[in-house]
Design brief:
The complex is a heterodimer.
Chain A: E1 2-6, E2 22-27, H1 31-40, E3 49-54, H2 62-70, E4 75-80, H3 91-109, E5 116-120, H4 126-143, E6 151-155
Parallel strand pairs in A: 2-3, 2-4, 4-5
Antiparallel strand pairs in A: 1-6
Chain B: E1 2-6, H1 9-15, E2 21-27, H2 30-33, H3 39-55, E3 61-67, H4 73-76, H5 80-85, E4 88-91, H6 95-104, E5 110-112, E6 114-124, E7 127-132, H7 148-151, H8 178-188
Parallel strand pairs in B: 2-3, 2-4, 4-5
Antiparallel strand pairs in B: 1-6, 6-7
Classes of the chains: A alpha/beta, B alpha/beta.
Chain lengths: ~160, ~220
């Protein structure tokens, strides 16, 4: 048997800007370096974003994206190189197709495609990185918190 | 190999609507290769189904197992304990796999997660084409290894028909005319004389039209 319980640490009304959570899968060869550069330049960007360093966006599986959303992350950003500029030639192009498919799946699930987005930028584009993160925060703010975050599944002890 | 494709999430959600604890079973053979029912696809569908059901306010508990082949009892046995723990089974196997599991667990509802399509090959990455109908009486040796039963829309044995245009089938301009392919192939291997033979109407009793078929090899039975 399973039951839904409210998780006191993440109440349903916790939709304030400071509490929305965004996960960004950043490619080593562009977005991660751009984020690093943004930091080195002391540029301000929302603190809601948590970065996952990946070797290429082509390495990001659909399962990783869905797992994040199931656990209550409000928005997922996949940041890869400019099209045509992938270090592995076409990893970012493959990622784009997979993410489009995953977005359709999110519509079917009922969570909505807007919570998942792919963006492209180069390693020198720190301002672009900041702008894309801000846009994602705006989107999530307008969508409200991830409805899956309001509840957690607890297993009852087997007796 | 057998080629299949996934059913829409909405359809799977509908068939599982009455269950709260379900075993998702992947198959490690054909449907893994055609990216429809392997371990990865089972994982993705599990995430999708758990999220969809939580949003509906009726969470579902999912256990995932992928076995080597769903069409063999020897491998299905591995599911016994997991099947016992769950209310129902969602099979990611081909039609044969779903039925094999349903036969082994008569007391459990067994549902299909895939639409089984055909016997085919991988043409290029993520593109599969049908090559064999399993008609029970193979004519490939007479036609240079190209099957007119499967690949000619009219199943002609004495083709081509008058409808093919510029190497294309009249049914679908994107589909090559099987008889054009046969002609080219026989020419290349020096067997064009095969086309001068008249092939009599086929005996379709070997095909599935009279229902499911059985193959028995007495010498190997125990």
């Amino acid at each position: 048997m399973i039951e839904i319980e409210s998780d006191p640490s993440t109440p349903a009304e916790a939709a304030t800007d400071s509490e929305c959570r965004i996960l960004a899968f950043c490619c080593n060869f562009c977005a991660y370096a751009a984020a690093d550069l943004a930091g080195a330049r002391r540029m301000q960007y929302p603190s809601n974003v948590r970065i996952v360093h990946v070797p290429c966006t082509g390495e990001v599986e659909v399962e990783h994206l869905l797992a994040a959303l199931e656990r209550g992350i409000d928005g997922v950003l996949v940041a890869g190189c400019l099209e045509g500029g992938c270090h592995f030639l076409e990893g970012n192009l493959r990622a784009r197709r997979r993410i489009e498919e995953a977005r359709l799946m999110l519509d079917e699930i009922g969570l909505g495609r807007e919570r998942l987005r792919m963006v492209n930028l180069s390693a020198s584009e720190a301002p672009t990185f900041v702008a894309r993160v801000q846009e994602m925060v705006e989107t999530v703010r307008s969508l409200g918190p991830n409805p899956l975050r309001a509840s957690v599944i607890r297993k009852q002890d087997p007796k | 190999m057998i080629v299949a494709s996934q059913k829409p999430i909405s359809e799977i959600k509908r068939v599982l609507a009455g269950h709260d604890k379900v075993l998702f079973v992947g198959c490690g053979t054909c449907v893994t290769v055609c990216l429809a029912g392997g371990e990865r696809e089972v994982g993705i569908m599990s995430y999708a189904m758990r999220m969809a059901r939580r949003l509906d306010g009726r969470p579902i508990e999912i256990e995932q197992v992928t076995i080597e082949r769903q069409c063999e009892n020897e491998f299905i046995q591995e599911l016994a304990a997991a099947a016992q723990r769950n209310e129902a089974i969602l099979s990611f196997g081909c039609g044969a796999g779903v039925q094999a599991i349903a036969e082994r667990f008569p007391e459990k509802p067994v549902y299909a997660a895939l639409d089984t399509q055909f016997l085919g090959i991988l043409e290029e990455q993520a593109v599969w084409t049908e090559k064999c109908l399993g008609c029970g009486s193979c004519v490939l040796s007479d036609f240079g290894g190209i099957c007119p039963i499967t690949r000619c829309a009219k199943r002609l044995l004495n083709g081509p028909c008058g409808g093919s245009t510029e190497e294309s089938c009249e049914v679908d301009p994107d589909r090559p005319c099987a008889w054009q392919l046969i002609y080219r192939r026989l020419k290349a291997i020096g067997q064009l004389e095969n086309l001068e033979r008249i092939f009599p109407p086929r005996d379709w009793r070997t095909s599935w039209h009279a229902g499911a078929r059985t193959v028995i090899r007495e010498e190997h039975r125990i």
